[in-house]
Amino acid sequence: MRLVLRLVPAIGLLLAASTLVLGGAGRGVTLESYIEHVRFLASDELGGRGNGTEGLHKAGDYVAAQMKEAGLEPGGPEGSWFQPFEIATGLTAGAGNLLTLHAGTQSFALQLGSSYYPLAATPTESPGEASASIVGVPLVFAGHGISAQELGYDDYAGIDVRGKAVVVFTHEPQENDPQSTFNGAQMTQHATLMDKAMTARTKGAVALLIVADPTHEQDSGTYEAFGKDPQAEDYGIPVLRMERARVESLLSAWGLPALAREIDRDLAPRSRELPEVTIDYAEHLVKTRRTVRNVVGVLPGSDSTLAREAVVIGAHYDHLGLGGRHSLSPELAGQIHNGADDNASGTAAVLELAWAAAANRDRFPRTLVFVTFAGEELGLLGSSHYVGHPTIPLEQTVAMINLDMVGRAQGKVVVSGLGTSPSLKADLDAAAEGGSIEVKQFQVGAGVGASDDTSFVLKKIPAIGFFSGFHADYHRPTDDWQKIDAPGAVQVTSIVLELAARIANRTDRPEFVPPPLSHGPASTSGGSSATGGYGPYFGSVPDFGDSADGMRIADVRENGPAWTGGIRGGDVMVKFAGTPITSLVDFTFALRGSKPGDEVEVKVLRDGMPLTVTVTLTTRP
Ligand SMILES: [Zn+2]
What we know:
There is one protein chain. By secondary structure, the chain is α+β, with helices and mostly antiparallel strands. It has 13 helices and 28 strands. Strands 1, 2, 3, 14, 15, 16, 17, 18, 19 and 20 form a ten-stranded mixed sheet that branches. Strands 5-4-13-7-10-11-12-6 form an eight-stranded mixed sheet, sandwiched between helices. Helix 4 links the parallel strand 11 (207-211) and strand 12 (239-242). The longest helix has 20 residues, at 486-505. It is globular, with a radius of gyration of 26 Å. Zinc ion is lined by residues 1-2, 342, 377, 475.
C-alpha cells in the first residue's frame, strides 16, 4: 500500500458474521500453508523485496512455482509466468559528486553520503553527463524557505534569489507553539520538502540547501543510508541536506541560529544575502533502470461460454527493500523492511486462493486471472503495466479484487470500492455470511493511487479492495511475519474465495459506475492542515504509470472544470497557468498557487499535438 491518501470514511455498513465457508472439496485455504508463504516472502533472505533486487526476483520465482503446483496455467507472454517490464528503481551515484561552500578565503568540502545527500535531484538516463553543475553561485539565507501568503509570512520577501542558491532550516517557525498561526504545534504543508523545493524553484533559485532546525537537538538526516540505497525525489531543483555538525561553525559565523530564534519570537522573516559566500555543486546521479516482473497465473473457467470472461485477483508482492525514501522510519533506512503485512499477506492470500480455486474448478464458470504485481510501492507500476498488457482483454475482464495488507485483521476487514459496482454488495454479503469476521463496507476506494485496484478503476473495471488497516509497523522494519494474524487473514481469504465464486457465476456482469473523483491530484495538497484544505478543484485523475514529460491525465470528472474546459482522459498536461508541468508534483503545486474562480490557461498534448484550453477552477464539490 502506498501512503497517498488516508482511507476516506464513507457510508460504512457493518455486517455481523459467524462461521467460515471454505471452498468445497479438495484443498481449501489452509492456515499452515498461508503462514508458510508469509514467512518465506517476509524473510530476511528476500531482503524486503525491493523493486529491482534479487529478493523480489526470488519472491517472483516462488509465486510462479506455487501457481504451477496449484494447477494454474501461465498467463504471461509466450507461455511464461512472468510479465517483465522496466522501471526506474532508484539512483546510481557516479564519480565526481561534490558540494563545496566557499566563505571568503575558506572552503568547506562536504562528502556525498556522509556530510550531505540530495533529497531531490534530477538524475540523467545515462552515465557520463552531470545531472547538475553549479559553480561559484552566491548563497542566500531564507529562514525556513516558506512563502505562506495566507499567513502573511514570506521568507522570500525582499530578497532576490534568481540564479542563486538558498540555505534554509528544516520545519517551520514556532513549530512547538500551540498558539502559532502555523497551525499550532501541528506542522503545516509549508514545512514539507515538496513545498520548500517548489517554492525555491518558483522564485528562481538554482539549488536549495537544507540544515536541521537549530531548535532541534538532533540532526535526523540519513546521510549514510543514501550511500546504501540512493533515492531522491525529482522536483526540478537540487535539494541538498547538509549535516549540521559539519557546517555548524559557518552557520554560527553567519549568525543564522540567532536569526532563527528571532524569527521564532515574532514571525518576522530575517532573510539576507551572505556576503562573499558561494557554493559549487556537481551532481552525477543516473537513474537505475531494472526489469521487474508481474507474475500471472490463469485458471480457465469451467463454462465454455463464460470462460472468455475473467475476474482478476491481485496483490502486489514488492515492498521497500531497505527502506529508502518511502520508509516511515528514515533513521532506520538500511535495515530490511520485511513487509509481512505490506504485502506478503495479500500475496500469500492470492496463492491460497489459487490452490483452493484450482481444486474446485467447477465453482468458477468464468476464468480467474491471479496476478501478483511488482512496482506498486513506486507508483502502481505493475498494475498499470498489466492493464496495458492484459492476459484476458479488458473488455472481457468483469471485475478485479485486490488484496493489500490483509494480515492484521483482528476480527475485522475493510472492503472498499463497492461504489464502482453497487450490485457487488449482494455478492459480498453472501460471501461473508456466516463468517466470524466483521466486514466494513465502503463505497469509495482507499484513495486514488493507494493501491492497484486504482489501475483497474481507471480502465472502467469494477474493482474492490480488501484491507485490514494501518498500524504502527506500516512501512517500517518492524512489519514482521510474527505479527501477522494468520487465522484472520485466512478468514479474509475465504471471503474473497466465495466472492470470486459468486462473481464468476453471475449471469450478468457487474456494471461499472465511475467513482467520485474528488480525490483527484489536488488532494495531495489537501489534508488536515489548517491552511491546506480549501484548494481549488480541477477535476482530473493522474495516470499513475511511469509517464513521459508532462502529466498524463487518466480521466476527467464529467462536467467538472477540466471537462468543461475541454480536457479529456489521455491528454498530457505540459503547462498550467504559465508554469511548465513535467510531473504530478509540478501540477499539484501549480494548482495550489491558484484560487477557485481563477481562469487558467492549460496546455496539453493530445495524441502528441499541442492544444491550449481555458479552465475555470471551482471549489471542491
Ligand atoms: Zn506499502
